[in-house]
Structures are given as C-alpha cells and as structure tokens.
Write a sequence for this structure.
C-alpha cells in the first residue's frame, strides 16, 4: 500500500509539472500576436504620409498653368522691346559691330515675337501689340544717347536683359505645364543663349576700349 501511495504521488507531481510547463508557454503567444498587431498599425500610417503629397501634386498644375500664361505675356513684351531697341541700335550705334547686333535683334526677335503671339492665340491669351509704358521708357532712355555712350549703355542693357530671358525660358521649358509652350520655350532658348554670348563679347570689347 505504501508503495502504491508513493507511485500515486510521483504521478501527481509529474502531472503538476507538465501543467505548469504549459502555463509557462502560453503567455508567449500573446506577445507574438502583439508583434503582428503592430504591423497593421504601420501600414495604416502610410496613407497619412501620402495624403499631403498627393494634394500638393494636385494643386501644382493649376499654378503652373498660370505661369504659362504669364510667361507668354512677359516673353512677347520682352521680344517686342528687343525689336524696338534693335532698330534704335542699327541707326544710332557708333560701332559697326553694335549696329549689326542691333539688326540681328530686329530680325530674330521679330520672328520670335510672331511665334510667341501664335502660341498665345492658341491658348487664348491676350498679348499686347504695342509696348507698355515701362518698356517704352526703356527704349526712350536709350534713344536719347548717341555715339560710344549709346553703345556701352545698349550692350549693358542687352547682357542684363538676355540673362533674365535665358533663365525665364529655361524655367518654362523645364517646369511649364502646356506642352506647346514648353516646346516653344525650348526651341527659342538656344537663340537667346547665342544673343547673350554675343552681347557679352561686345561688352568685353567696349570695356577694353575705355
């Protein structure tokens, strides 16, 4: 009887230990579940980060389209001004090189003006046929000069103005919205870059002659 009691106690102890072992293992499963539950939380945060970016992309084209129209207006006015200044230079410049440059501006900016006006008409953008007061005053100011004084002032004006033109046309070609306007800006850009380099060369010559 005593031996049977001992066996019973040993079996009971073994069963207790086995049950305790199972209880010790069970708490680890919620921890694993908790790790998986964290994943949906990370996924749900993705749309929140995408939302603002998508909104910014949606609003960008509207602003760029406004820039296309402004670009056409400003570029047309600037090109018309170059034609008028070129006419003055071809008549009043004392240097043959400056006179030739002025005539080049008349010819090439005359063509550019027509192309810009055509693009503006396609976009139904109204561009002026005559210079506004700001650009006309620029022409009038240079018209009052003569000889070497005119040459220096005109070339200085051309370098500054074509630097701005090149930047504006580069920006439109890269970031504009309307494909036709972007293509036109890219097409006219090399001519403007040539004008800028020619004006810089003339500026160096005039500086050396001082």
């Amino acid at each position: 009887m005593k031996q049977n009691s001992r066996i019973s106690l040993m079996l009971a102890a073994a069963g207790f230990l086995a049950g305790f072992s199972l209880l010790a293992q069970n708490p680890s499963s919620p921890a694993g579940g908790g790790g998986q539950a964290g994943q949906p939380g990370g996924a749900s945060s993705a749309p929140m980060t995408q939302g603002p970016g998508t909104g910014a992309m949606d609003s960008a084209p509207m602003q760029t389209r406004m820039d296309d129209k402004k670009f056409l207006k400003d570029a047309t006015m600037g090109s018309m001004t170059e034609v008028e200044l070129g006419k003055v230079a071809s008549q009043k410049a004392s240097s043959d090189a400056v006179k030739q440059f002025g005539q080049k501006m008349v010819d090439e900016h005359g063509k550019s003006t027509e192309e810009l006006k055509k693009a503006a008409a396609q976009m139904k953008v109204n561009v002026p046929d005559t210079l506004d007061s700001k650009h006309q005053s620029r022409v009038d100011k240079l018209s009052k000069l003569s000889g070497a004084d005119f040459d220096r002032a005109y070339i200085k004006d051309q370098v500054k103005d074509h630097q701005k033109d090149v930047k504006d046309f580069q920006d439109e070609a890269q970031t504009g919205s309307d494909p036709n306007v972007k293509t036109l800006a890219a097409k006219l850009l090399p001519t403007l870059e040539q004008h800028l380099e020619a004006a810089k060369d003339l500026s160096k010559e005039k500086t050396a002659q001082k």
Remarks:
- The CA atoms of residues 69 and 125 lie 7 Å apart.
- The first helix runs from residue 2 to 25.
